[in-house]
Design brief:
- By secondary structure, the chain is of the alpha/beta class.
- It is built from 16 helices and twelve strands.
- The strands form three sheets. Strands 1, 4, 5, 6, 7, 8, 9 and 10 form an eight-stranded mixed sheet that branches. Strands 2-3 form a two-stranded antiparallel sheet.
- A hairpin with a 2-residue loop joins β2 (25-26) and β3 (29-30).
- The radius of gyration is 24 Å and the shape is elongated.
Length: 369
Protein backbone atom coordinates (compact mmCIF):
# COMPACT_ATOMS: atom_id res chain seq x y z
CA UNK A 1 0.00 0.00 0.00
CA UNK A 2 3.02 2.29 -0.34
CA UNK A 3 1.58 4.06 -3.39
CA UNK A 4 -1.64 5.08 -1.63
CA UNK A 5 -2.15 7.85 0.91
CA UNK A 6 -4.97 9.27 3.01
CA UNK A 7 -5.58 12.91 3.92
CA UNK A 8 -7.90 13.65 6.84
CA UNK A 9 -9.11 17.25 7.06
CA UNK A 10 -9.27 18.37 10.70
CA UNK A 11 -8.34 22.05 10.62
CA UNK A 12 -11.77 23.67 11.05
CA UNK A 13 -13.55 25.38 13.91
CA UNK A 14 -16.51 22.94 14.26
CA UNK A 15 -18.67 26.07 14.45
CA UNK A 16 -21.93 24.50 13.26
CA UNK A 17 -21.58 21.60 15.69
CA UNK A 18 -20.80 23.84 18.68
CA UNK A 19 -18.64 21.03 20.10
CA UNK A 20 -15.10 20.36 18.90
CA UNK A 21 -15.67 17.39 16.60
CA UNK A 22 -12.24 15.74 16.31
CA UNK A 23 -12.00 15.20 20.09
CA UNK A 24 -15.55 13.98 20.66
CA UNK A 25 -15.73 10.42 22.01
CA UNK A 26 -17.46 7.88 19.78
CA UNK A 27 -17.66 4.42 21.29
CA UNK A 28 -14.20 3.42 22.50
CA UNK A 29 -12.30 6.10 20.54
CA UNK A 30 -12.30 9.77 19.65
CA UNK A 31 -13.77 10.89 16.33
CA UNK A 32 -10.32 11.62 14.89
CA UNK A 33 -9.01 8.29 16.14
CA UNK A 34 -11.88 6.51 14.37
CA UNK A 35 -10.95 8.08 11.03
CA UNK A 36 -7.26 7.37 11.52
CA UNK A 37 -7.94 3.77 12.49
CA UNK A 38 -9.99 3.22 9.33
CA UNK A 39 -7.04 3.98 7.06
CA UNK A 40 -4.37 2.37 9.23
CA UNK A 41 -6.40 -0.83 9.52
CA UNK A 42 -6.79 -0.85 5.73
CA UNK A 43 -3.00 -1.00 5.49
CA UNK A 44 -2.25 2.56 4.33
CA UNK A 45 1.13 3.69 5.60
CA UNK A 46 0.98 7.30 4.42
CA UNK A 47 -1.80 8.80 6.55
CA UNK A 48 -1.84 12.56 7.07
CA UNK A 49 -4.04 14.81 9.18
CA UNK A 50 -4.30 18.46 8.19
CA UNK A 51 -4.55 20.50 11.40
CA UNK A 52 -5.18 24.19 12.00
CA UNK A 53 -7.58 25.32 14.73
CA UNK A 54 -6.56 23.62 17.99
CA UNK A 55 -3.55 22.10 16.21
CA UNK A 56 -1.73 21.78 19.54
CA UNK A 57 -4.49 19.48 20.79
CA UNK A 58 -4.68 17.28 17.70
CA UNK A 59 -0.96 16.74 17.09
CA UNK A 60 -0.54 14.44 20.15
CA UNK A 61 -3.51 12.32 19.01
CA UNK A 62 -2.11 11.98 15.49
CA UNK A 63 1.35 11.08 16.75
CA UNK A 64 -0.04 8.59 19.27
CA UNK A 65 -1.81 6.80 16.42
CA UNK A 66 1.36 6.61 14.34
CA UNK A 67 0.20 8.99 11.60
CA UNK A 68 1.60 12.34 10.44
CA UNK A 69 0.22 15.85 10.72
CA UNK A 70 0.40 18.76 8.31
CA UNK A 71 -0.25 22.21 9.75
CA UNK A 72 -2.33 24.57 7.63
CA UNK A 73 -1.62 28.10 8.80
CA UNK A 74 -4.30 29.40 6.41
CA UNK A 75 -7.09 27.22 7.83
CA UNK A 76 -9.31 30.25 8.50
CA UNK A 77 -9.62 30.70 4.72
CA UNK A 78 -11.77 27.58 4.52
CA UNK A 79 -11.60 23.86 3.84
CA UNK A 80 -10.06 24.17 0.39
CA UNK A 81 -6.91 25.64 1.93
CA UNK A 82 -6.61 22.42 3.94
CA UNK A 83 -7.22 20.30 0.83
CA UNK A 84 -4.33 22.10 -0.86
CA UNK A 85 -2.07 21.85 2.20
CA UNK A 86 -2.59 18.11 2.27
CA UNK A 87 -2.13 17.52 -1.45
CA UNK A 88 0.93 19.77 -1.63
CA UNK A 89 2.70 17.64 0.98
CA UNK A 90 2.06 14.23 -0.59
CA UNK A 91 5.22 12.27 -1.46
CA UNK A 92 5.93 12.09 -5.19
CA UNK A 93 5.64 8.29 -5.26
CA UNK A 94 1.96 8.39 -4.30
CA UNK A 95 -0.32 7.30 -7.15
CA UNK A 96 -3.72 7.95 -5.52
CA UNK A 97 -5.00 9.37 -2.25
CA UNK A 98 -8.17 9.43 -0.17
CA UNK A 99 -9.64 12.71 1.02
CA UNK A 100 -11.82 12.50 4.14
CA UNK A 101 -13.23 15.26 6.37
CA UNK A 102 -12.59 14.32 10.01
CA UNK A 103 -16.31 14.53 10.78
CA UNK A 104 -17.09 11.41 8.70
CA UNK A 105 -15.71 8.82 11.14
CA UNK A 106 -17.71 5.64 10.44
CA UNK A 107 -16.30 4.55 7.09
CA UNK A 108 -15.25 0.89 7.26
CA UNK A 109 -11.69 -0.21 6.55
CA UNK A 110 -13.09 -2.84 4.18
CA UNK A 111 -14.54 -0.05 2.02
CA UNK A 112 -11.09 1.54 1.77
CA UNK A 113 -9.60 -1.80 0.71
CA UNK A 114 -12.25 -2.27 -1.97
CA UNK A 115 -11.60 1.20 -3.40
CA UNK A 116 -7.87 0.49 -3.61
CA UNK A 117 -8.47 -2.90 -5.22
CA UNK A 118 -10.67 -1.28 -7.85
CA UNK A 119 -8.00 1.32 -8.60
CA UNK A 120 -5.28 -1.34 -8.95
CA UNK A 121 -7.44 -3.37 -11.35
CA UNK A 122 -8.68 -0.36 -13.34
CA UNK A 123 -7.10 3.04 -12.52
CA UNK A 124 -9.30 6.13 -12.74
CA UNK A 125 -8.96 9.81 -11.96
CA UNK A 126 -11.58 9.46 -9.23
CA UNK A 127 -13.39 6.54 -7.65
CA UNK A 128 -16.39 7.39 -5.48
CA UNK A 129 -17.91 5.01 -2.93
CA UNK A 130 -21.67 4.88 -3.44
CA UNK A 131 -24.31 3.77 -0.96
CA UNK A 132 -28.06 3.87 -1.49
CA UNK A 133 -27.40 5.48 -4.90
CA UNK A 134 -25.60 8.43 -3.26
CA UNK A 135 -21.94 9.34 -3.62
CA UNK A 136 -20.13 9.24 -0.30
CA UNK A 137 -16.71 9.71 1.28
CA UNK A 138 -13.86 9.29 0.89
CA UNK A 139 -13.20 9.59 -2.85
CA UNK A 140 -10.00 7.96 -4.08
CA UNK A 141 -8.23 10.58 -6.22
CA UNK A 142 -5.41 9.94 -8.67
CA UNK A 143 -2.42 12.24 -8.21
CA UNK A 144 -2.67 13.24 -11.87
CA UNK A 145 -5.27 15.74 -10.56
CA UNK A 146 -2.73 17.15 -8.09
CA UNK A 147 -1.69 20.10 -10.27
CA UNK A 148 -5.29 21.15 -10.90
CA UNK A 149 -6.16 20.93 -7.19
CA UNK A 150 -3.23 23.21 -6.35
CA UNK A 151 -4.57 25.94 -8.65
CA UNK A 152 -6.82 28.69 -7.18
CA UNK A 153 -10.05 27.26 -5.79
CA UNK A 154 -12.78 26.87 -8.39
CA UNK A 155 -16.41 27.66 -7.69
CA UNK A 156 -17.67 24.63 -5.78
CA UNK A 157 -14.20 23.65 -4.55
CA UNK A 158 -12.85 20.12 -4.78
CA UNK A 159 -16.27 18.73 -5.61
CA UNK A 160 -16.23 20.63 -8.91
CA UNK A 161 -12.83 19.25 -9.88
CA UNK A 162 -13.79 15.69 -9.07
CA UNK A 163 -17.17 15.84 -10.81
CA UNK A 164 -15.69 17.15 -14.05
CA UNK A 165 -12.92 14.53 -14.12
CA UNK A 166 -13.05 12.63 -17.42
CA UNK A 167 -12.40 9.20 -15.99
CA UNK A 168 -14.67 8.60 -12.99
CA UNK A 169 -15.82 5.32 -11.50
CA UNK A 170 -18.40 4.38 -8.89
CA UNK A 171 -18.03 1.59 -6.35
CA UNK A 172 -21.30 0.47 -4.76
CA UNK A 173 -20.78 -0.53 -1.12
CA UNK A 174 -22.96 -1.71 1.76
CA UNK A 175 -21.16 0.71 4.08
CA UNK A 176 -23.61 3.42 5.17
CA UNK A 177 -20.74 5.09 7.02
CA UNK A 178 -19.68 6.72 3.74
CA UNK A 179 -22.76 8.96 4.06
CA UNK A 180 -22.78 9.69 7.79
CA UNK A 181 -21.30 13.01 8.89
CA UNK A 182 -21.27 14.99 12.12
CA UNK A 183 -22.51 18.28 10.76
CA UNK A 184 -24.64 19.08 13.81
CA UNK A 185 -24.99 17.93 17.41
CA UNK A 186 -28.15 16.01 16.57
CA UNK A 187 -26.17 13.91 14.06
CA UNK A 188 -23.56 13.11 16.69
CA UNK A 189 -26.16 12.05 19.24
CA UNK A 190 -27.70 9.66 16.71
CA UNK A 191 -24.30 7.99 16.23
CA UNK A 192 -23.82 7.34 19.94
CA UNK A 193 -24.81 4.08 21.63
CA UNK A 194 -28.08 4.50 23.57
CA UNK A 195 -26.31 4.54 26.94
CA UNK A 196 -24.36 7.66 25.94
CA UNK A 197 -27.15 9.51 24.12
CA UNK A 198 -29.42 10.44 27.03
CA UNK A 199 -28.60 14.14 27.23
CA UNK A 200 -30.18 17.31 25.85
CA UNK A 201 -28.44 19.15 23.01
CA UNK A 202 -27.53 22.81 23.38
CA UNK A 203 -30.75 23.91 21.69
CA UNK A 204 -32.76 21.64 23.97
CA UNK A 205 -30.93 23.06 27.01
CA UNK A 206 -31.92 26.54 25.88
CA UNK A 207 -35.54 25.45 25.65
CA UNK A 208 -35.40 23.96 29.16
CA UNK A 209 -33.90 27.15 30.59
CA UNK A 210 -36.56 29.28 28.92
CA UNK A 211 -39.34 27.04 30.19
CA UNK A 212 -38.06 27.47 33.78
CA UNK A 213 -37.51 31.24 33.53
CA UNK A 214 -33.84 31.10 34.48
CA UNK A 215 -32.37 34.58 34.91
CA UNK A 216 -30.03 35.94 32.19
CA UNK A 217 -27.13 36.47 34.62
CA UNK A 218 -27.39 32.85 35.76
CA UNK A 219 -27.34 31.67 32.13
CA UNK A 220 -24.23 33.78 31.46
CA UNK A 221 -22.50 32.19 34.45
CA UNK A 222 -23.37 28.71 33.22
CA UNK A 223 -22.08 29.54 29.74
CA UNK A 224 -18.72 30.57 31.19
CA UNK A 225 -18.55 27.43 33.31
CA UNK A 226 -19.18 25.41 30.16
CA UNK A 227 -16.43 27.18 28.23
CA UNK A 228 -13.87 26.48 30.94
CA UNK A 229 -14.99 22.89 31.49
CA UNK A 230 -14.90 22.22 27.73
CA UNK A 231 -11.37 23.56 27.44
CA UNK A 232 -10.18 21.32 30.27
CA UNK A 233 -11.94 18.35 28.67
CA UNK A 234 -10.33 19.01 25.27
CA UNK A 235 -6.87 19.02 26.80
CA UNK A 236 -7.61 15.82 28.69
CA UNK A 237 -9.01 14.08 25.60
CA UNK A 238 -5.91 15.18 23.70
CA UNK A 239 -3.91 13.36 26.39
CA UNK A 240 -5.87 10.12 26.00
CA UNK A 241 -9.09 10.58 27.99
CA UNK A 242 -12.55 9.95 26.51
CA UNK A 243 -14.60 12.62 28.27
CA UNK A 244 -18.14 13.04 26.96
CA UNK A 245 -18.07 16.66 25.76
CA UNK A 246 -21.77 16.78 24.90
CA UNK A 247 -22.90 15.39 28.25
CA UNK A 248 -20.54 17.81 30.00
CA UNK A 249 -21.94 20.72 27.99
CA UNK A 250 -25.51 19.87 28.95
CA UNK A 251 -24.61 19.58 32.65
CA UNK A 252 -22.72 22.88 32.61
CA UNK A 253 -25.50 24.74 30.80
CA UNK A 254 -28.12 23.46 33.27
CA UNK A 255 -26.29 23.13 36.58
CA UNK A 256 -27.82 26.25 38.16
CA UNK A 257 -31.32 25.76 36.76
CA UNK A 258 -32.73 25.84 40.29
CA UNK A 259 -30.51 28.71 41.49
CA UNK A 260 -32.20 30.67 44.27
CA UNK A 261 -33.88 27.64 45.79
CA UNK A 262 -32.60 25.97 48.94
CA UNK A 263 -30.32 23.02 48.06
CA UNK A 264 -30.42 24.15 44.47
CA UNK A 265 -27.99 21.47 43.23
CA UNK A 266 -30.21 18.64 44.47
CA UNK A 267 -33.35 20.45 43.30
CA UNK A 268 -31.86 20.97 39.85
CA UNK A 269 -30.83 17.35 39.67
CA UNK A 270 -34.33 16.19 40.54
CA UNK A 271 -35.89 18.50 37.99
CA UNK A 272 -33.68 17.10 35.23
CA UNK A 273 -34.23 13.52 36.36
CA UNK A 274 -37.96 14.13 36.04
CA UNK A 275 -37.35 15.27 32.46
CA UNK A 276 -35.62 11.95 31.75
CA UNK A 277 -32.01 13.14 31.75
CA UNK A 278 -30.61 10.92 34.48
CA UNK A 279 -26.90 11.25 33.63
CA UNK A 280 -27.10 15.04 33.45
CA UNK A 281 -29.16 15.08 36.65
CA UNK A 282 -26.44 13.15 38.48
CA UNK A 283 -23.77 15.66 37.45
CA UNK A 284 -25.92 18.65 38.36
CA UNK A 285 -26.80 17.20 41.77
CA UNK A 286 -23.12 17.00 42.76
CA UNK A 287 -21.78 20.20 41.20
CA UNK A 288 -21.61 21.99 44.55
CA UNK A 289 -19.73 19.25 46.35
CA UNK A 290 -18.47 15.93 45.01
CA UNK A 291 -19.05 12.84 47.17
CA UNK A 292 -16.08 12.08 49.43
CA UNK A 293 -15.55 8.74 47.69
CA UNK A 294 -15.33 10.25 44.20
CA UNK A 295 -12.00 9.18 42.70
CA UNK A 296 -12.41 9.25 38.90
CA UNK A 297 -11.35 12.25 36.81
CA UNK A 298 -14.61 12.55 34.89
CA UNK A 299 -17.30 14.98 33.76
CA UNK A 300 -18.50 15.47 37.36
CA UNK A 301 -15.03 16.66 38.36
CA UNK A 302 -14.81 19.14 35.48
CA UNK A 303 -18.21 20.67 36.26
CA UNK A 304 -17.37 20.87 39.97
CA UNK A 305 -13.98 22.50 39.37
CA UNK A 306 -15.10 24.86 36.61
CA UNK A 307 -17.98 26.07 38.78
CA UNK A 308 -15.52 26.84 41.57
CA UNK A 309 -13.25 28.77 39.20
CA UNK A 310 -15.97 30.98 37.75
CA UNK A 311 -17.25 33.87 39.84
CA UNK A 312 -20.21 35.36 38.01
CA UNK A 313 -18.75 35.37 34.50
CA UNK A 314 -15.13 35.87 35.56
CA UNK A 315 -12.59 33.07 35.70
CA UNK A 316 -10.69 33.30 38.99
CA UNK A 317 -8.10 31.32 40.87
CA UNK A 318 -9.20 29.11 43.75
CA UNK A 319 -7.26 31.41 46.09
CA UNK A 320 -9.33 34.37 44.86
CA UNK A 321 -12.50 32.34 45.26
CA UNK A 322 -11.52 31.43 48.81
CA UNK A 323 -10.94 35.06 49.79
CA UNK A 324 -14.26 36.16 48.34
CA UNK A 325 -16.22 33.35 49.96
CA UNK A 326 -14.61 33.81 53.36
CA UNK A 327 -15.38 37.52 53.24
CA UNK A 328 -18.96 36.79 52.21
CA UNK A 329 -19.41 34.34 55.13
CA UNK A 330 -17.55 36.46 57.66
CA UNK A 331 -18.70 35.51 61.15
CA UNK A 332 -20.19 32.19 60.00
CA UNK A 333 -17.55 29.64 60.94
CA UNK A 334 -19.57 26.64 59.74
CA UNK A 335 -20.09 28.15 56.29
CA UNK A 336 -16.44 29.09 56.03
CA UNK A 337 -15.43 25.55 56.95
CA UNK A 338 -17.73 24.15 54.27
CA UNK A 339 -16.18 26.51 51.71
CA UNK A 340 -12.70 25.46 52.81
CA UNK A 341 -13.55 21.79 52.41
CA UNK A 342 -14.97 22.22 48.91
CA UNK A 343 -12.07 24.37 47.73
CA UNK A 344 -9.50 21.93 49.08
CA UNK A 345 -11.21 19.23 47.06
CA UNK A 346 -11.20 21.52 44.02
CA UNK A 347 -7.50 22.22 44.51
CA UNK A 348 -6.77 18.49 44.56
CA UNK A 349 -8.48 18.04 41.18
CA UNK A 350 -6.91 21.17 39.75
CA UNK A 351 -3.46 19.82 40.54
CA UNK A 352 -4.38 16.40 39.15
CA UNK A 353 -5.58 17.88 35.85
CA UNK A 354 -2.57 20.17 35.54
CA UNK A 355 -0.29 17.20 36.10
CA UNK A 356 -1.98 15.36 33.20
CA UNK A 357 -2.10 18.24 30.70
CA UNK A 358 1.21 19.82 31.69
CA UNK A 359 -0.20 23.34 31.92
CA UNK A 360 -1.89 25.53 34.55
CA UNK A 361 -5.64 25.65 34.08
CA UNK A 362 -5.57 29.43 34.34
CA UNK A 363 -3.20 29.47 31.36
CA UNK A 364 -5.56 27.48 29.14
CA UNK A 365 -8.57 29.38 30.50
CA UNK A 366 -7.83 32.21 28.08
CA UNK A 367 -8.51 29.81 25.21
CA UNK A 368 -12.08 29.35 26.46
CA UNK A 369 -12.97 33.02 25.96
Amino acid sequence: MDNFAAIILAAGFSSRMGLYKPLLPLGNALVLEKSLSTFLTAGIKNVYVVVGHNAHLLKPVVERMGAQWIENINFAQGMYSSVQAGVKNLPREIKAFFMLPADIPLVQAETIKKLMDMYVQSPAEVIFPVHDNRKGHPPLIATQLRAEILQPEPLGGLKTILNKAKNKKLLHVDDEGVLKDLDREEHYRRMLPPAAAGYPTRSECEQILAAHNVLPQVILHMEQVNKLAQMMALYLNSCGYRLHLALLQAACLLHDIAKGQKNHAEKGGQLLANLGYKEVASLVATHMNLPAAHEELDEAVLLFLADKMVEGTEIVSLAQKKRKKHAFFAGNAAAQQAVESRLQKALFWQQKIEQVIGKPILEIAGESK
